[in-house]
């Protein structure tokens, strides 16, 4: 709804959005509207034409109510609460409402370092050099056998027995197993390779995204390493196990994967817009989504299978960029999550972003094209009728 002097109003249901000159509108006086084939709204004002469109990728920042703009991790619990590790605050989004547990106001420390939601919907929260179970508004501390802290936690997962595994960073890196809020097993870096991220498969193994950029499978007290060609400085940013127990990991040199003993790497040589992958997830149609440093990419499951069959194959992708609302970033600890309704959530170390794969829109109507002039070897021609320049040039 346009007004003579009081800005633009967008009314949907019981909610009203207001757009003013303070929000970027050139002037508050609006004369008319037009809707294009992509659902974009064009408003004619006394100073020109304004364009409004609903972004495919929605951003949540301090402007929308987050405590700060420092979102380093996102997980979604079984009740569809979206939890954020956001600097000195544990933020959450539930039914459109944002809440925060901040340092000095309920958070048992200064900085949230890691998050994990288990099968029961309970939230495990790394805060400073401790790990806590957050349940019904209370933080319960995880301790070692001597009562000391777990130290700095960077990655967590849950095995088939519902034990929690966590990777400890710092000078004494190790993998620990947690049961009933106590550390029951410890595996130092001298026993298994140092990792950052963890994931569990359906056979009881724990998969480790290693600091050297490779993958390892830990089972029965032993680790098997699967190496990938890359530079030594590339760490794994996320590791995830798919429903068929194939394992994927996000790295700066591409998407690496393991299936039935076979390893492959998906990169720009396969059709990706760049190499650096921040995180990945799968939608309800089985399509693979890659949150990358350059773009957000969707790959149909048939294209992923084509790549499994032929590692050098080029895959067909759908790319979402800044024109779709994407803000690139570089989070490296649980950077993606999924709601039960299929919405995908992404942390980029600054803001939280969301896309709904079931409500994507695309204008399939090609725009009208009018050829006004033709230039061949610097010579201008009028496009009248059929223009022939050489036997192999026909316009």
UniProtKB/TrEMBL annotation:
One Pfam family this sequence matches: Reg_prop
SUPFAM superfamilies: Calcium-dependent phosphotriesterase
InterPro entries named among the record's database cross-references: Reg_prop, WD40/YVTN_repeat-like_dom_sf
Domain of life the protein comes from: Bacteria
Protein name: Two component regulator propeller domain protein
